[in-house]
């Protein structure tokens, strides 16, 4: 530490995700990363995310662990439902040393909310009444956050800390409740004096992690946490300065760009998908897709973004040879001569999509996603790409992508997104 | 506990996912649920998954927490890369009380593996040599698992336990290395005498959790952990008996089916996607899609499965009205009269897809995914579905789905999959 006095640690926070279906891997959590980003943006240093099943001892042990790890704030998700395995309110009450009481206001709120559904579905009755009552039990003294589904959220102050924010498990309910959690007085009090961090981000295409490490080895990184993360073909570099080390982070950011700018995708954290959307809108271009092995994954990824109807014309999933010919005009003789997986057919898919949808840019993808269908010349993972545009550009690629069926399809979709970005002319690097 | 002597606890295991990019939420973990399912299938009781950033103290504290939670096995993922923030081998060595040493065999293995790429990319040199050397440092006495990427995995025995299995972070590498981890002698020794569990699963469509709770309230669940999990419109019920309680789990399984069979999707854990694939294959049917708001998500989901070319003919993403008419033959007057989001257009999309692709089943989806485009009559979330088949079935639905754009698109895709399952006649329930 060169200047320990000028750098302040950020307050530590922890996330506890509850649910036996999470701990057994039956489902994948969607709340942890979202909460971590929100807490980071508020200025907290998220130390751990812990998953625990619906067992009181495991939940309690997780809370205690986060306390020993110095967390002043713990956010929990899940375990607020109507069944006996929903234990979070009970365990958090015990953790804070208070009793649970029935909140009449919450009870009638839930009752009113589900009344229509209960009647229509025929599920009204004692089971539902018991469920409603259970969901209305809150720790004494807790701040109740209005339900966005049926269960209310809670802000519970443990004497001596930490503060515990208890949120429901369904991602939509959790995200809907978050603003009222952040606005709750005890949370506001904790946030008082916490500065939002000035993180910096970089994204590169095809740069290995070792190169970033080599660049950093000669630089002073005191007070700046630098993390690199390889996501398929993209490398993400995040720089997180402690309060006081912001200028050093800026200098490191500039130094990394100077050394690796050729492969830069973005210097501000923008994703390829954001850049593609912006570039197409800026140019007033529409895009159409002709997909074989990716089977609609590229179209779906383009449509993911709100407002995409302004630049997505549509697409065809032409899985069979007949469909390639009938819907996108790929000549049957071309398929017979070169094979369905060939640069020629990728080009014809791109042109066909552009033509049939009247779009400015066409993307063609054809490949062997596996596990069957591979040959020596065209093994599993072999994919041909082509992007053509109304201004006369034709960009083709042939790659043998690693991994299993799902990997290959995702990597192929990534590659097509990069090629789309290149054809718009919006790539900052020169490669 | 009615019969405590006949029920044995399963050995406890913990998962530690490392990486600052995970703890900050920059990326979502893909290894935790996969590892949890594998460990569960081997007979372990997974108690916690913990995420920790790339800081030695946080990693060590996580290992210590899993020890206090009684874990006899800890599986870690990540932190084996070439950069300074990759610390797992070092921290695990210290945890086990041993030194790190350079393993010459591993070093030359990595060197050989990357030689071609290093030459072609121009990245050969001192940075790469240092990275290779770092990745070849292993704890004294550890079992080295051959690299599936560049980094080797490790099995490290701590005197007095637990056993630590150290795996790389990239999911493909981790999954590829898992068989050799399970086959390693110390892991085999731990598994000796652990029986694979006999879990039972149920899946329902549209059944609320409170109904399952109500059914269970009258039954003896001793020794059987019952968890319910609502995933969008499907409710999953898992029954996990401790050794000795298998028969009770069978009885509970039968009792839940007896009470809620009308809405049963499957009684053996089969997913809707598996059932749709099997039903289409069994009937020798092919399917074609005409999608608007889902934008290829249904086609992509159908193509996700290996062998899907046997029953997926293809699909059209007809986002614009022009595309609906030009590619799927939806009459322009129909769109003008009823609107693009209407039961009539959903039907025409289904018929058009079936016709253009020469398929047996056609699925049409048109809706308002939002955030813009909603009206009072057709709000955001309003989606029209139609499935038609060559044997004359026509199933239509109109729903207003909750949530944001992504939720709506996913729920719409779910609904379409259910309708597909119904049209094949493969639903066990009567609803």
UniProtKB/TrEMBL annotation, chains A, B:
Q: Which InterPro entries match?
A: CinA, CinA-like_C, CinA_C, Competence-induced_CinA, MoaB/Mog-like_dom_sf, MoaB/Mog_dom
Superkingdom of origin: Bacteria
Question: Where in this chain does the record put each MoaB/Mog domain?
Answer: 14-189
| Database matches in SUPFAM superfamilies | CinA-like, Molybdenum cofactor biosynthesis proteins
- What family is it from? Belongs to the CinA family.
Q: Which NCBIfam families match?
A: cinA_nterm, PncC_domain, PRK00549.1
Protein name in the entry? CinA-like protein
């Amino acid at each position: 530490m060169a200047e320990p006095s000028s750098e302040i640690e950020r307050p530590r926070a922890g996330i506890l995700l509850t649910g036996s279906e999470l701990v057994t891997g039956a489902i994948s959590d969607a709340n942890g990363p979202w909460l971590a980003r929100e807490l980071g943006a508020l200025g907290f240093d998220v130390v751990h995310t812990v998953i625990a099943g619906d067992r009181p001892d495991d939940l309690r042990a997780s809370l205690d662990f986060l306390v020993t790890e110095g967390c002043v704030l713990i956010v929990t998700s899940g375990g607020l439902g109507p069944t006996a395995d929903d234990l979070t309110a009970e365990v958090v009450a015990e953790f804070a040393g208070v009793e649970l009481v029935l909140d009449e206001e919450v009870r009638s709120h839930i009752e009113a909310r589900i009344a229509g559904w209960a009647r229509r579905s025929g599920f009204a009755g004692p089971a539902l009444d018991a469920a409603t009552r259970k969901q209305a039990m809150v720790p004494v003294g807790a701040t109740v956050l209005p339900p966005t589904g049926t269960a209310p959220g809670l802000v519970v102050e443990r004497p001596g800390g930490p503060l515990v924010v208890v949120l429901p498990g369904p991602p939509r309910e959790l995200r809907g409740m978050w603003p009222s959690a952040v606005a709750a007085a005890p949370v506001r009090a904790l946030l008082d004096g916490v500065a939002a961090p000035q993180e910096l981000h970089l994204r590169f295409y095809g740069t290995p992690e070792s190169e970033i490490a080599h660049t950093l080895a000669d630089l002073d990184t005191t007070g700046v946490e630098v993390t690199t993360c390889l996501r398929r073909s993209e490398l993400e570099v995040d720089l997180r300065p402690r309060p006081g080390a912001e200028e050093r982070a800026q200098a490191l950011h500039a130094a990394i760009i100077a050394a690796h700018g050729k492969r830069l995708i973005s210097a501000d954290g923008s994703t390829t998908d954001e850049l593609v959307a912006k570039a197409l809108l800026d140019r007033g271009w529409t895009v159409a897709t002709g997909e074989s092995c990716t089977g609609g994954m590229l179209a779906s990824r383009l449509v993911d973004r709100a407002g995409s109807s302004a630049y997505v014309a549509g697409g065809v999933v032409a899985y069979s040879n007949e469909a390639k010919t009938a819907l996108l005009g790929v000549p049957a003789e071309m398929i017979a001569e070169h094979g369905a997986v060939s640069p020629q057919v990728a080009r014809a898919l791109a042109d066909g999509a552009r033509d049939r949808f009247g779009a400015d840019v066409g993307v063609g993808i054809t490949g062997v996603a596996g596990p069957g269908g591979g040959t020596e010349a065209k093994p599993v993972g072999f994919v041909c790409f082509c992007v053509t545009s109304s201004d006369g550009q034709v960009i083709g690629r042939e790659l043998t992508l690693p991994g299993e069926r799902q990997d290959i399809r995702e990597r192929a979709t990534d590659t097509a997104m990069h090629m789309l970005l290149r054809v718009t002319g919006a790539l900052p690097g020169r490669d």
